[in-house]
Write a structure and sequence with these properties.
Layout: H1 15-18, E1 24-33, E2 38-40, H2 41-47, H3 52-59, E3 63-65, H4 73-88, E4 95-99, H5 111-117, E5 124-128, H6 134-147, E6 153-161, H7 171-174, E7 179-189, E8 196-204, E9 212-214, H8 230-233, E10 235-237, H9 239-260, E11 270-273, H10 278-288, H11 299-302, H12 309-319, E12 328-335, E13 339-346
Parallel strand pairs: 4-5, 4-6, 11-12
Antiparallel strand pairs: 1-7, 1-8, 2-3, 6-7, 8-13, 9-10, 12-13
Helix pairs in contact: 4-5, 9-10
Bound molecules: oxa(dethia)-CoA.
Residues 50, 54, 58-59, 132, 171-172, 175-176, 239-240, 242-243, 246, 276-277, 280, 304, 334-335 line the site of oxa(dethia)-CoA.
Amino acid sequence: MPSLPPTGPSAFPSPASSAPQGRAAVLCGLAGWVPPRVVTNEELSRRLDTSDTWIRTRTGIGQRHFVEPGQATSDMAVEAGRRALRSAGTDTVDAVVVATTTPDRPCPATAPVVAARLGLDGAAAFDVSAVCTGFVYGLASAAGLIAAGVAERVLLIGADTYSSIIDPDDRSNAIIFGDGAGAVVLRAGSPDEPGAVGHFDLGSDGSNEEMIMVAAGGSRQRTSPGEVSREDRHFSMRGREVFRHAVTRMAASARNTLALADRKAEDVDHFVPHQANLRILRSVAEDLGLPMDHCVSNVESVGNTGAASIPLALTDAAARGTIRPGDNVLLTAFGGGLTWGSCFLTWPALAQPGLPHDQGEELAS
Ligand code: UT7
């Protein structure tokens, strides 16, 4: 088995060390949304050579949510964004950032149409593409906009429609991924107040880009009618190798972030990792010496939702009252690229969000 590259501190300088003193991005709103359609393991087992037992044992996933035909990433992002703005008690932001692997179109970005549909016309709007690490990269980007004085308030949405890129006949991937969106609002504040995000560790390893990819549709392999194989059109992942990289990179990134924050694993009240696979979460928590009851997981009910996974897990935990003001929270993600990233924060007093699957109101049109 080839050994993994070294996992020392990332070459990427930590915004924590370069952020202007006295100005930080502070979490002030949180929400999530998953589409109503539930796809159970039993449903998948009826058309794929798999079983509820295999899926639960190997991944911890019991079900996932899929959008209806015709619904796209922006539809989910708008719903999560609207809820997050309500949670923050605001209807204005200076920037909208959408972290996604499944934009509505290759061009333009999805964030501007989301901003327009939320009545935020005129706000800066752009997408962040870092696959399942997208939310943490987006958090660092939003924090940078605020620290630099470019924005006072930012809406960051992680949203992915994996059902649009997964081959429904690929049993390895079709069982893992689900659709959803989670969002946070960040405002300018001080680095020492609860909710201040800082102490980031971000990294990448592009030499392993082929481990997780959609091969066709970009400038490298263009999409011409009749020329692209089914395999190249869909998401592919070398699951076993990715599993190994995920565990190593997430644990190393979490450690780097704790060191930057001058904290120890025992200071972490809630470890909120990207919900890739329950076995990955267990391995990372064990590596860090964290008991599993400190590890937040909603993978059983939503599967792996890519860039939406961390904000959805946070929303679920905050809605259930598991995460409370003053708790120390460590976020860690890993995804295609390869990419990884972590962030440490102390939880602020927030309006309690609803559960992501509570529909409450119609999907915004
Ligand atoms: O979110 C971005 C990062 N993504 C991840 O971190 C995901 C990382 N990878 C994983 O979660 C796991 O590797 C998978 C869930 C994708 C696969 O689990 P695994 O335990 O690594 O299984 P495997 O790929 O090593 O396959 C073991 C066996 C194989 O059969 P043989 O060759 O041993 O006969 C597979 O063909 O399981 C078979 N298999 C299945 N069997 C029933 C693969 N998928 C299925 C399935 N149902 N759905």
